[in-house]
């Protein structure tokens, strides 16, 4: 079995996929490998996943960007809601607003004030157009009345490298990939983007409580298979994934990454993606967000 990841090694999709792949190999009784195919904000891997034989041997790690791209009606070589079958939700993950150490802001309100004093000059990085990193930044711009420049990358790992190098000012990164840099003091964390504080960083406020009421962007990561994959195979992989997520050592590993395990049925994942499409279609239209 292979698991397609649409981003480079070191990002959240890759980290979560490798944790699950290692543990699920024993439960499924077959080797499971992770293949990184970065590009087009994960859509190169998604296109390959949609074309793969529906034999239960190819999974795609889908995430927040997939329903967002679908909601924005981007022209892609696949239809996410039609060409994929939901298999298993892996985890939900808050994003965290971090800045490079040269940015003088110590909290969210100071950052907003700084951006307002320098319209069009402050930059925020992302893992690509339509990613949760991008959409969190666009919502931040819209809610704060800010003029900032979006700088897309082919994954969060290269974006974080440029953030530390001082080439961009901030990023709304997934907490798992940002955590080591925060703990090492390489970047400064200001707030998390979800509706509640992250257990791994309880001292960090949410953006909603710090400055912008109602602000909420939470990422998710999940397995999807080609649409015509037999239901029996989908159930088998779902059960194996849920069994892995129930193991204390896996839950501890995910918690250490800032991720919350989210076992459930394929139908739960389908309902989640349908809600996300509806939510972000409304947000994109209201905020007039352009996915370049």
Features:
292 residues, alpha/beta, 10-stranded mixed β-sheet, 10 strands, globular, single chain, 44% helix
Q: How is this structure best summarized?
A:
By secondary structure, the protein is of the alpha/beta class. It has helices at 12-28, 43-51, 65-71, 80-83, 108-117, 132-144, 156-164, 175-183, 207-210, 231-245, 248-256, 266-287, and strands at 2-5, 33-36, 58-63, 84-99, 123-126, 149-152, 170-174, 188-192, 218-226, 260-261. Strands 1, 2, 3, 4, 5, 6, 7, 8, 9 and 10 form a ten-stranded mixed sheet that branches.
What can you tell me about this protein's structure?
By secondary structure, this protein is an alpha/beta fold. About 45% of the residues lie in helices and about 20% in strands. It is built from twelve helices and ten strands. Strands 1, 2, 3, 4, 5, 6, 7, 8, 9 and 10 form a ten-stranded mixed sheet that branches. The radius of gyration is 18 Å and the shape is globular. The two termini are about 35 Å apart. The model has no long low-confidence stretch (mean pLDDT about 90).
